[in-house]
């Protein structure tokens, strides 16, 4: 599995298929591409002559893409299909409501999150507790209804689907829970736990359910004699294997792993991670892997997304982010990863300041209250998501050329905002004084 797709110095030209065709020219190479019904598919031609096609998650096209060079010879096309795309997703939980039920204040658990995930790959979602990782996973699953944004899965917009129409996607998207001890019903045997969803969704005929469940158990490292046993008879690692078998029994395409190894011993963690990787290779699974353990994330993921207070701080390929973390928060997170070498001195970055409340986040960059490189512009202007290098995005003013070249102007703007706030506070204080005198 490729861990990194670092850009080299090879020139690349991009195009989008329109009306079923497109033409690309790069250097001495000219390629004509045809794909009936493939409007919206992105094409890339390198100066070496290689052709790549990326099918977005909002595009239902799954047909053939034919490419030919100018001399009529066929060109081989590398096709990458995005199975999941999240655009500006939001999930707010109301804290206080008015008498008429209108929300006055809310907790912004997921705030304007966007990312794409290619079929057969893994994205790791990392961040501190309470940053919105689990809420993001549950919102993608539509266990929570979103408050904004879009979710595209396998060519379809599932954002606002009702429960009845969402039913056919329930088998395609599955969840592995964090706690294997509480996520299994204690009064059901292992065989019945795995077979329940198979029976409900009619994955196989009734007479084949038992043999099918035994096959799934074998794939997940569970012995045949476990079929009639109950969850309390198993260790934590075995219970997590049961949870994995239950998720895979309905033949999903996308599996959201919500900290699947955090409750397990280190040796058992390695077994479960290796199992997940093996199953991904054999079944072509796609994972959204939520975790605190950055060592595990580095081992299993292709991409990493760093979250803080509901926002995305940084996104990129795993090796790119580990080799060159950009955001100050990412650097602080990665400085906490232990190195198994007694001669290496750790340069731990200790974050100062208080952790803001997600119900009342600070203006501007949400991380500025704890950032050692905070500037005045960070205190009132939210950073944009900037592509620092190919497929490596960071939301930080330090990498925004427009902001860094106009710092003096933003400093003046900040001073004006402070003066305006001070004036408003003084006016409020003046209005209160006459009332206080009357009361006396």
UniProtKB/TrEMBL annotation:
<dbReference type="InterPro" id="IPR003439">
    <property type="entry name" value="ABC_transporter-like_ATP-bd"/>
</dbReference>
<dbReference type="InterPro" id="IPR027417">
    <property type="entry name" value="P-loop_NTPase"/>
</dbReference>
<protein>
    <submittedName>
        <fullName>Dipeptide ABC transporter ATP-binding protein</fullName>
    </submittedName>
</protein>
<keyword id="KW-0547">Nucleotide-binding</keyword>
<dbReference type="InterPro" id="IPR003593">
    <property type="entry name" value="AAA+_ATPase"/>
</dbReference>
<dbReference type="GO" id="GO:0005524">
    <property type="term" value="F:ATP binding"/>
</dbReference>
<feature type="compositionally biased region" description="Basic residues">
    <location>
        <begin position="430"/>
        <end position="440"/>
    </location>
</feature>
<dbReference type="InterPro" id="IPR013563">
    <property type="entry name" value="Oligopep_ABC_C"/>
</dbReference>
<dbReference type="InterPro" id="IPR050319">
    <property type="entry name" value="ABC_transp_ATP-bind"/>
</dbReference>
<dbReference type="Pfam" id="PF00005">
    <property type="entry name" value="ABC_tran"/>
</dbReference>
<keyword id="KW-0067">ATP-binding</keyword>
<dbReference type="GO" id="GO:0015833">
    <property type="term" value="P:peptide transport"/>
</dbReference>
<dbReference type="Pfam" id="PF08352">
    <property type="entry name" value="oligo_HPY"/>
</dbReference>
<feature type="domain" description="ABC transporter">
    <location>
        <begin position="84"/>
        <end position="334"/>
    </location>
</feature>
<keyword id="KW-0813">Transport</keyword>
<dbReference type="GO" id="GO:0055085">
    <property type="term" value="P:transmembrane transport"/>
</dbReference>
<feature type="region of interest" description="Disordered">
    <location>
        <begin position="421"/>
        <end position="440"/>
    </location>
</feature>
<dbReference type="GO" id="GO:0016887">
    <property type="term" value="F:ATP hydrolysis activity"/>
</dbReference>
<dbReference type="InterPro" id="IPR017871">
    <property type="entry name" value="ABC_transporter-like_CS"/>
</dbReference>
């Amino acid at each position: 599995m490729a861990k990194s797709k670092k850009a080299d110095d090879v020139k690349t030209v991009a195009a989008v298929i329109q009306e079923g065709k497109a033409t690309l020219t790069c250097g001495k190479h000219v390629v004509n591409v045809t794909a009936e019904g493939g409007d919206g598919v992105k094409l890339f031609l390198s100066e070496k002559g290689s052709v790549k096609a990326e099918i977005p998650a909002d595009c239902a096209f799954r047909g053939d893409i034919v490419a030919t060079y100018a001399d009529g010879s066929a060109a081989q096309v590398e096709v990458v299909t995005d199975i999941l795309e999240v655009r500006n997703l939001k999930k707010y939980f109301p804290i206080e409501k008015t008498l008429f039920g209108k929300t006055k204040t809310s907790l912004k658990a997921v705030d304007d999150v966007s990312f794409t995930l290619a079929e057969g790959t893994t994205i790791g979602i990392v961040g501190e507790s309470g940053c919105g990782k689990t809420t993001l996973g549950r919102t993608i699953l539509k266990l929570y209804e979103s408050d904004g944004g879009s979710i595209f899965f396998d060519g379809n917009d599932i954002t606002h689907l009702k429960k009845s129409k969402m039913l056919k996607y329930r088998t395609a998207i599955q969840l592995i829970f964090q706690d294997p001890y509480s996520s299994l019903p204690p009064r059901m045997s292992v065989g019945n736990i795995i077979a329940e969803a198979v029976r409900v969704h009619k994955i196989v005929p009734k007479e084949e359910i038992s043999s099918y469940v035994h096959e799934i158990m074998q794939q997940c490292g569970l012995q045949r004699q476990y079929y009639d046993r109950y969850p309390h008879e198993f260790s934590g690692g075995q219970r997590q294997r049961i949870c994995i078998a239950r998720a895979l029994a309905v033949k999903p395409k996308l599996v959201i792993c919500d900290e699947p190894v955090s409750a397990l011993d280190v040796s058992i963690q390695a077994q479960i991670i290796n199992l997940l990787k093996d199953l991904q290779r054999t079944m072509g699974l796609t994972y959204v892997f939520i975790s605190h353990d950055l060592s595990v994330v580095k081992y299993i993921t292709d991409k990493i997304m760093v979250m803080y207070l509901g926002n995305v701080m940084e996104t990129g390929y795993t090796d790119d982010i580990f080799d060159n973390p950009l955001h100050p928060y990412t650097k602080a997170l990665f400085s906490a990863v232990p190195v198994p070498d007694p001669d290496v001195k750790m340069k731990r970055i200790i974050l100062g300041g208080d952790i803001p409340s997600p119900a009342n986040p600070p203006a501007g960059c949400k991380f500025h209250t704890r950032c050692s490189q905070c500037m005045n512009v960070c205190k009132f202007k939210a950073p944009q998501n900037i592509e620092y290098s190919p497929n490596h995005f960071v939301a930080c003013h330090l990498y925004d050329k427009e902001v860094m070249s106009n710092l003096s102007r933003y400093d003046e703007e900040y001073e004006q905002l402070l003066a305006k706030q001070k004036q408003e506070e003084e006016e409020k204080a003046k209005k209160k004084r006459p009332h206080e005198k009357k009361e006396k």
